[in-house]
Amino acid sequence: MQDELEQLQHALPQVQAVLTAVEEGAPVVVRKTALDTWLWQLRDAVENAEDVLDELDYYELQKTDKVRGILSDRMRMFDSFVNGIFSDDTLKRLREAVKGLGRVIADMGSLLHLVTGFYGPGAKSQKLEEIKNARETSSLLTESEVLGREEERDLIVEWLIKPGDADIDLSAFTIVGMGGLGKTTLAQLICHDKRVREYFDLIMWVCVSQDFDVTVITRKILQCMSNVNFGDKGLHVLHENLKRKLTSKRFLLILDDVWNDDKMAEWEKLVAPLKFGQRGSKILLTTRMGSVADKVAKVMKCKREPLNLNKLEESDCMSLFNKHAFLGVRPHDYKNLQLIGEQIVKKLGGSPLAIKIMGGILNSCMDYEYWKKILEEDIMKLQQGKDGIMTILRLSYDHLPANLQLCFRYCSLFPQDHVFKRKTLVNMWIGSGLIPQSICGRQRQPEDIGKEYLNLLTRKSFFTCKTSDNMLKITKEYFMHDLLHDLAQSVSLGECIRIGGDVVGITIPRTVRHLSIEMVNLLSIRAISNLKNVRTLIISVKEYNKHNALHVPEFMKIIKGFKKLRLLILDVNIIHTYKLLDALSSLIHLRYLSLSLEDVVDESIKYDGLTNESIEYDGLTNLVNLRSLHVPYLVTNNIPYISKLPFIRKLEDFFVREESGYKISELKNLRDLRHLHISGLRNVRSPEEAIEANLNEKKHLKSLSLDWSTYRSNSAEADEQLLDNLCPHINLKKLHIEQYQGAKSPCWMTGLSLINLTSIKLMHCKRWEHLPPFGQFSSLQLLFLWGLHAIKQMDCSVFGSSSGCAFPSLKHLWLRDMPNLEEWIGIDD
C-alpha cells in the first residue's frame, strides 16, 4: 500500500498540470471535437485521486484529532493502513485511482500536440505570472468615464425633462440596440445626470430580463422606493401599495433589458398602477428588439419614441481600446502595437463590450507576435453583428488562463443579472474546489488567490464592480453583462448547469460537476440521483408544497448519495427541515454548507413537540473539512464539540454553556477563524477558563464580538478578569463588546496593543466607568458607544493625549443612551 500511495502522490500533480495545460491551450472548438471525451476521462481520473487522498486526510484527522501538519505529511497514513484504520472500500478505491491515472498517462503523448502552439511566443509564461502580480488597486475600477454617447444622452435627457402632452399622464422612451452596444451604460449615465435627478421626485431602476413576471417586477419597483421586502405579497396588494406611493410623485422608471413584446395583458397589468403618478412621469426602457417599443407605445397609448443605438464612433472606439489594452503603461511606448490595435478595433463592430474585453486580453501580453497572431488568425475572420461579438467574447475567453476560465464558467450557475458578493463568490469557488490548497502557501491563503482571480476577471471586463462603504462595512458587488452570461452558459455545457424551472423531464449530462436547481416537489430530486460526480449542488424549494413533508426521508437519502460534494446550498421551506441535517454527516468532502432554514427549523422542532435545546446537531462535526458554514443560529448553538471543525472561517454565534461540548475551550484549536461571535459569556465558570479559548493565537481573526447575553453576572470583578483573559491577537480589526458588567477596561485595551483596530462598538455595558484612551488608536475609524450609563465625564486623557492628535483616522462617532454623561473636557482642543 505504501508503494501505491507514493505512486498516486507522484502522478497526481503531473496529470493535474497536463489537464490545466490542455484546458488552457485548446480553444473550445478543438475541445468539442478531438479532446472532449479524453478530457472528461482525465478529469474523472484526477478527481477520483483527489477524493481518495481527501478521504485519507479525513480519517487521519478523525483518528488523531489534530489540526496542523496532516495535509502535508501523508506518511502518517501508512500506520493507519497497517493498523486497519481505513476500510477495504477505501483501499480498493486507492488502487483504482492509481490505475485510472496510469491509463490516462498512457494516452497523453498522442494528444498533447493538438494544443501546442495555440499561444504566441512568451504569452503562456506571462499569463501565468500575471496571476501572481495582480494588483487590487487597479483591478476593481469601474468605468470612471463613458466615452462617446454625449449626443444620445442629451437627446434622451431633453425628452425626459420636457413637459408631456396635456392628455398623456405617462409616456415612454425606448433605447434599442443589439447586445454589447452600451444600452445599459447609456441608461445609467442618464439616470445619474444632474438634470434628471433635479426634475424627478423618484428614480427607480428594475432589471427585467427574459422572464417577464409582472408580480416580480412590481415588487422590485416597490423595493426601489422603500427598501422594504414585500415577500410573497400578491399582485393586488402590491398594486395598492404602488398606487399609494406614486400619488403626487413625478417619477422616472428605468426598465432595463426588456424582452417581452407579445404579452399585451401582462404589459397592461404592469402599467396600470404607474398611471397614478404625477403628470410628466416617464418610463425609459432598454431592449434588443424594436418590437418592444411598438408594444409599449400601444399599451400606453402614446407616441412611439425609440432611439436605435448605433456603434461607437471610430475615435471613441480607439480611446476605449487604448484605455483597456494599454492599462498601466504608456501607449506611445508601444507604437508597433498601436498599429495592430487600430486594425483589430476596426473588426470589433463598434461594440464597447467587445472592445473592453479584447483590450483586457491583449493587455495581459504586450508582445508584438502575440497581437499579430490574434489579428491574422482570429480577428480577420470575424463577422459583423451579434455572432461576431459572441465570437470575440469566445476568443477572449479562450485566452484566459485555465483557472480563470473555470471560475468564469462556474458563474453560469447563477441567474442572469445576479448580483455577486465578493466574499460569497470567492468562498464558493474555494468550497467547490476551484482554488485547490496545493497552489497556496503560508503567505497566500485561498481567499487571497480567489480575490486575485476575481480582480483579474474584473480587470479583463468579464465583471464590472461597484463598491459601497456603509459605516465602514465595505461591500463589493459584481455584475456580469448578459452576453457574458450567455457565454458562460455556452462554454460550461456538460460541467455547470442551472435549471430555473423544475428538473423533471430535462436530460442532464452525467459529466456535470456543478448543478443549480429550482424545484417545487422534493421528489424532483430523483431526476439527478444518478449524477455521482457532482461537486456543487444548489437546491432551491421556495414554493410551499404541503406534500413535501412526506418526501423528506427520500430527499435526505438521495442527498446522502452525493458522496463527492464539496459545496451544498439548500434553500428549502418544509416542515421537518431540521431532520435534513442528519443526512449530511456522511458527506465528508464538504467544504461549504449553507442552509436557509431559520424560521422553518424553529417551527418544525415545535411541531414535533421538542425544544431548541433538546436537538443536537452532532453529526455536523463529522464534516471536518468544512471551511464555510452558514446555518441558522438555532443550529450553530446546538453543535457540540465544534472544535472538530478545525478549518472553519466564520462562527457567527457560538453560545457558551457549562455542559461538555459547549464550553469556551472548544474554540482552542479553531485557528483559521476570521470572524467570531461569542455569546453566553455569563456561563464561563471561571476567568481562567477563558484563557483556553486561545484568542491571542488566532492571527487571522479580523472581527470579534463578545456578548454576555444578559444584564446579570456573578460579579463585576469576575467579568473584569474574564474580559482581561479574552485578549485577541494584534491583527484584530473590529471589536464588539455587549452587556459586559465590569467597571474597568481590559488591560489589552488600555495598553493600546490592538494597533490595527478600525472599529469599536461598546453596547449596554451599564457599569463601565473608565474608558480606554480611544483617541490614541491610530487606525480607529468608527467608535460606537451605546448604553454606557456609568460614564459621567469624557476628557482628552480618555480620547488621546493633549500633546498629540486624537483620533487621526476617525470617520464615525456615535454616542447614544448615556444619561449620566455630564461633560466632555477638552473637546475644543
TrEMBL record:
Classification via PANTHER family: DISEASE RESISTANCE PROTEIN RP (PTHR23155), OS12G0204800 PROTEIN (PTHR23155:SF1045)
Positions of the R13L1/DRL21-like LRR repeat region domain: 664-785
Protein name (record): Putative disease resistance RPP13-like protein 1
Source domain of life: Eukaryota
GO terms classed as biological process: defense response to other organism
Family under the similarity heading: Belongs to the disease resistance NB-LRR family.
Domain (NB-ARC): residue spans on this chain: 151-326
InterPro entries hit by this protein: Apaf_helical, Disease_R_plants, LRR_dom_sf, LRR_R13L1-DRL21, NB-ARC, P-loop_NTPase, Rx_N, WH-like_DNA-bd_sf
Keyword tags: Leucine-rich repeat, Nucleotide-binding, Plant defense, Repeat
Domain Disease resistance N-terminal: 2-65
Transmembrane annotation, as ranges: none
Pfam families the UniProt entry points to: LRR_R13L1-DRL21, NB-ARC, Rx_N, WHD_DRP
Protein species of origin: Ananas comosus
Domain Disease resistance protein winged helix: 413-488
An example molecular function term from Gene Ontology annotations: ADP binding
